[in-house]
Design goal:
The protein has about 300 residues and is of the alpha/beta class. It has helices at about 5-15, 75-80, 100, 125-135, 160-170, 195-200, 215-225, 250-265, 285-295, and strands spanning about 45, 85, 110-115, 140-145, 175-180, 200-205, 230-235, 240, 245, 270-275. Strand 2 (about 85), helix 3 (about 100) and strand 3 (about 110-115) form a beta-alpha-beta unit. The radius of gyration is 18 Å and the shape is globular.
Length: about 300
Amino acid sequence: MRRREFIKSAALAGGCVALGGCRSFGGSGIDRVPYGDTIGDRLWMWGHHAMSFASMKGAKEGYNLPYDRRIDMADACRDMGIPGCFVVRWRNLPVHADVPEYMKQFKDMRRVGFSITDSAPESFADKVRLGFEMAERMPNLTTLIMDDYWSCGGSLKRPFSELVELHEKMSARRLKLGVVLYSDANGVKPEYREVLDLCDEVTFWFWHGKNTGGIEGQVGRLREMIGSEKPVLLGQYMWDFGGKKPMPAAAMENQLAQTSRLLAAKAIHGVIFHCTPLVDMGLDAVNVSREWIKTNAGRRWGC
C-alpha cells in the first residue's frame, strides 16, 4: 500500500461509525490525569534512557541496534507529538541516585508512568517506594508499570497477596497499576487472569515483527478473557526486536491500520510507541508512525 493510501485508510478507520455515531467517553475514577476523548491524548511512548543503546556495546544480546547515544525520553515524546511517557529503567538507567533529577524533564508532560519491575538491581519494594516518592513530587505521574512481568524466567513475578496490598496503597494515591503482556512471548493464558483483573491497565505487545499481522485477532482473544471494559494499551514496536532488525514501513503501516480499527471500536484505550531512542534514527517505521500521529491525533476515540 502506498503511503498516501495508508494514511487515507487509517483516517477512514478512525472516523465515526456511520450508524452508531460516537460513543460516549468514560474514564477511570482513580485517574490522576484522566484520558481525554481524542486519540492524541491517549498516546504514550515507551521510554529508555539516551545511553541505553550505548550501554549494550559488547553485550551478548544487542538486537542489532546502533551502539551510541540517542535522543532522551521527553525530547523524543515532543518530537513525536506524544503526551505520555513510560519511564522504564532498562540497563539500570538512570541509576537510582539519579532518578529524582532525571524525572524533572517530564514536568510539562501530560502524564508519566514509572516502572517497578525492570532490570534495575533494587528490590521490588525499593522500586515501589521510589515510584511513590516520585508521585508525591509529580502530579502528572499516573501509573506504576510492571515490565516483563511474566518474562525473565518468572523472576519478576510477585505473590498475588503482595500485589493486592500494593494496589490498595496505589488506589489511595489515585495511581494506576499496569502490567506488560506479550501476546507471542507469554501468550494469552488463563493463569494470567487474576493479575490482569487486578491491574488497572494492561499493555499488550507483539515482540516478533512476523506476528504483527494478527494484532486484531490477538486483541480479540485477550478481550474474551478479560472482558470489554478493562483498559488495554496496545504496544507498537518501531523496531523488530524479535527479528533483530528494523521494522519495515509496510509492516508498521499494517500495525497502525489495525490499531485505527481497534481504537474506533474501543477495543483498545490507547497506544504505546516503542521506544524513545529510536526517534532520531531516520527509520521508516518511525516516520510512518509520526505521520499516523499527525493524521489521527485530533480524532475522537471510539469514532
